[in-house]
Amino acid sequence: MSKKRRSQKKLARPEAHAPPGESQAIESLTIFWSLCIFATLVFVIGVLLMWFSVAAWQLAGGPRDTLLAFSDLLLFTAVVTGSVGGLLTPIVQSRRKRRAPKSLQIAAVAIAMMPWALLVFLMSRR
C-alpha cells in the first residue's frame, strides 16, 4: 500500500488555515480566569466538606481544631482566587471577540461570590 501525498499547493491555500482568532494575551487571560473560577469552586467544596465532617463526626480536641484550621486556610484561598476571578470576569468578557454565554458569566460571578458568603456566614456564627 502506498501512502497518499498531499499537494503542497493545497496546504498553502489561505482557506486551508484557520481564521485568525483571539490574541495570545487574551487567550492566556481567559485561561487564567477560568482556572481561578474552577479553583474557587474546588476550594469552596473543600471548605463545605471540612465543615460537614466536623459536624458529622463531632470531633473533640486536636483533629477538630486541625480540620477547622485547614478549612479556614481553604476559605482564605477561595476568597483570594474568587476575588481575582470575579474581577477578571468583566475584563475577559469585554476583551474577547466571542463572549462566553450569559449562563457561564452568571455562574462565574456566583462562584466568585460564594467564598464571601461563606466568610460572612462564618463571622456571624462565631
UniProtKB/TrEMBL annotation:
<feature type="compositionally biased region" description="Basic residues">
    <location>
        <begin position="1"/>
        <end position="11"/>
    </location>
</feature>
<keyword id="KW-0472">Membrane</keyword>
<protein>
    <submittedName>
        <fullName>Uncharacterized protein</fullName>
    </submittedName>
</protein>
<feature type="transmembrane region" description="Helical">
    <location>
        <begin position="73"/>
        <end position="92"/>
    </location>
</feature>
<feature type="region of interest" description="Disordered">
    <location>
        <begin position="1"/>
        <end position="20"/>
    </location>
</feature>
<feature type="transmembrane region" description="Helical">
    <location>
        <begin position="104"/>
        <end position="123"/>
    </location>
</feature>
<keyword id="KW-1133">Transmembrane helix</keyword>
<feature type="transmembrane region" description="Helical">
    <location>
        <begin position="31"/>
        <end position="53"/>
    </location>
</feature>
<keyword id="KW-0812">Transmembrane</keyword>
